[in-house]
Amino acid sequence: MWKKIKSQSDINRSRRNSRKPQTPENAHHFSVDCARAHRGMFGGILIIVLTIICLIMYFVLTEQQHPYKAMAILEVTISEIILYVVTGSAVVFAFLRMRDLKYSKKQEHSGIGLDCTLLLLAQSGVYIYVIFSIIGNFFAMAEESGEGGLEGLIAEALCLVETSLQTIFILNAWWRRCKGAQQNRTKPGRETVTFLLVANMAMWFLNTLVKNRASFRPTHLSFFGVWAWTIITHVSMPLAIFYRFHSTICLFEIWKTTFKIKIEHNN
How does this chain sit within the bilayer (predicted)? Predict the structure, then answer.
């Protein structure tokens, strides 16, 4: 009977042998590397805070009489101009920073993908809204009572340029990858991508809470008519809102995959 009793060392050895080795196939770990992103995140959060302040001022001023309502629209329009200039400049800077990354579009993925297709579809809504807004602002400038026509025209033209540049950037950066230890360490353009990611959230707030209303442009209501401008807004603005939301998703995918080197495990 005593021959079947194992010593403590034998028991520990059998336990170690019974454990399965942790191989790359059965050990699934999810990690997010946030290196080289803090300054872009700080800048994006600053944009969101300023946008929230702008929205609060807008809703407070719209509750007042006519001069303050016009001031509220002008305030949002100027905020749009600043946002489009800053984000457009950030897109150009990200282009320059990421131009040396490897463009690795595989043959089996020769299409543009579902995410990029949805982005292009949403871009069409932005174009529809911007084109009609430019027409309305142009004719509003010819009227004596057309307040904010010039500022609105500049804002919509900048929106057209900024969204076009951003879409081209996303379609290009979607297939970019780091190609060496140096790029993996420096992560060129990641801070700018982080900033664009958060800034698009700020513009999503602006489109959802303010520009989604047909009454935001009273000059357009008088030029196109109430029903026509309401239909234009309700058809195009949901796509424009989705564009900002989906741009945030696409930029996050770029942020997550572009600056990470895939390590091959040999069996």
Answer: Multi-pass membrane protein
